[in-house]
Automatic annotation (TrEMBL):
Residues 649-729 form the HRDC domain. ATP binds at A43, G44, A45, G46, T47, G48, K49, T50. It catalyses: Couples ATP hydrolysis with the unwinding of duplex DNA by translocating in the 3'-5' direction; ATP + H2O = ADP + phosphate + H(+). This is ATP-dependent DNA helicase UvrD2.
Amino acid sequence: MTPATHSPLFPQAPDSADAVLEGLDPEQREVATALHGPVCVLAGAGTGKTRAITHRIAYGVRAGILQPSTVLAVTFTNRAAGEMRGRLRQLGAQGVQARTFHSAALRQLQYFWPKAVGGSMPRLVDRKIQLVAEAAATRNLRLDRGELRDTTAEIEWAKVTQTVPADYPYAAAKAGRETPRDPAEIAHLYAAYENLKRDRAVIDFEDVLLLTVAVLQDRHDIADQVRAQYQHFVVDEYQDVSPLQQRLLELWLGERDSLCVVGDASQTIYSFTGATPDHLLDFRVRHPGATVVKLVRDYRSTPQVVRLANGLLTQASGRAADHRLELVSQRPPGPDPVFTEYTDEPAEAEGAARRIRELVDAGTPAAEIAILFRTNSQSETYEQALADAGVPYQLRGAERFFDRPEVRKAGIALRGAARFGGNDSLLDDVVDLPSQVRAVLSGEGWTTEPPAGSGAARERWESLAALVNLAHDFAAAHPGATLGDLVAELDERANAQHAPTVQGVTLASLHAAKGLEWDVVFLVGVADGMMPITYAKTDEQIEEERRLLYVGVTRARERLHLSWSLSRAPGGRPNRRPSPFLDGLRPGSATTAGRTGPAAAGGIERGTLAPAAAAPRRRQRTPARCRVCGRSLTDAGEMKLMRCADCPSDMDEGLYERLRAWRAVQARRSGQPDFCVFTDRTLMAIAEAQPDTTAELSRIPGVLSRKLQRHGADILAICAGQDIARDDEED
């Protein structure tokens, strides 16, 4: 146990603000006491970042500098938010809001909806996949379960990157997305999905952020009310922020600079969801006066584990690598990482299970051991090996292999073929058991070549391929076995692996392991083609695979085992090689070419500004005055119209109605409420001003730069008398 990450939380709240700072290292203390201006904390794995930021909030509260109700701490998972709230309570900082981006936005949207829109807020759908399926049906598209999951993920990515359906094909191509269908088809399905939601008056989780952004952008009075409530912000895991979340954060913050962000670019592993480390890496560009604190004292892992983690990043390239942190272990020495090469995958799984059995028998709790792999399809071999060794286990972030829908469906098909195979034309020309299984599973979606890219379709194929491989191995071990014998074997394996387990060895993918740690970690399948995975083609994708392995290595506190196999099945051709990421790090391997300059050391960097900019201050708005009577305006709606509500309007009613008709078409296309395109007040202001040029249009409150770029040409055409709304409807 170490002071930074494993010491017991205070049994009682510290009796003073200074007591909150006790036990912090110099860099953590700097974070805790940097309560003014923008602060960026670059925190390596295991360096106590959560401890630092919770003590920062608690110190500010206990010192009377921060009012608890004015602090909003946001992170990405309910588990992380709950942990933060618990720590703050133990430190005597009750009343601070610690939430995910979505839960914080949802509370605000629920509160302000009656005022901003009127009526009750639309119902929030928990799972959008059923709506996507129904939207596909309206387009006469048939999607299997894997395609549905992948298409749903594409819609989520489009929304968090603020991409509307019409722009999806271009945005997907620019981002190098592997799309499950033709991008044009997905764009049409995306639009149909948004229309279906609108017709049913429901919203999804991405809409919560989009609508909150829309309300805060268009209603200055509501934005001011939110900013009066929350005046200090802390953002954890800032390297995982999406463009949409960043926009929401900017609207929460306004023109203030009381912001503390925490992150590590070397742990960016979710770019496929829209996350980007650019906001973290560009923080000093946006906030030149920021204080930057680097946390590099690793309290989690032994020097041997830390040395391997640092070594992985010395060979990295790209922007994230340029900002890597050189970790320094604070723990006593431990055993060296163990590198093991096996002849085949079953031998690798049996070897890991055997070592785990020895560790458990020697007193290591099973709950302090983890097996981490690249894809969920790898779990079945390890589930079986642990079951055979009598070691309890639990899966994290995935279904058990035999519980997966595609595996259960395949089992039904195999069972049916075993009973009635004589009447199955698929089996007419096949004799041996593996050929029979391949023939049956070809009807379930298995093909000789995997689908391109990642995602649900690839995972589904991997599960079916695992069954095909199992059939090969079973036939080799049991010559003359029938399809019925294989089905019995599958049933026996399923029953053995369904035994109830509680405290057991954790089986998890590397993505699901983020944020967790164990005394002993087995990183398995660390072979070229799996790390990096075969469909990682670009330099950026390969570097993210390296970071994924780095995350896996840094999950280990004391013991780390890395293994790979030379072939898939016993007796197979030994043509695999260890992951190139291990070159120069495992015994007997050559060092690959080095990377760019040295890593960043720990410490503090003070922001430096020119004297005139040394004290950021809120920009003063020019007082708005009514263009009719000249009275000062304070109401947001009146400011948008630039006249008092009681003063006569010179609005062109016909133009206003044409603008409303055009807006309805745009809203239907984007699947958003009308006011997300333009509010009624903005349309009234346009109908009163009747702008002729882009410059005149841009001066109307509510016509922001993004909307001006997207809709400006249409608005000016309508003001000039062209019937854009009718043309759109005919198209």
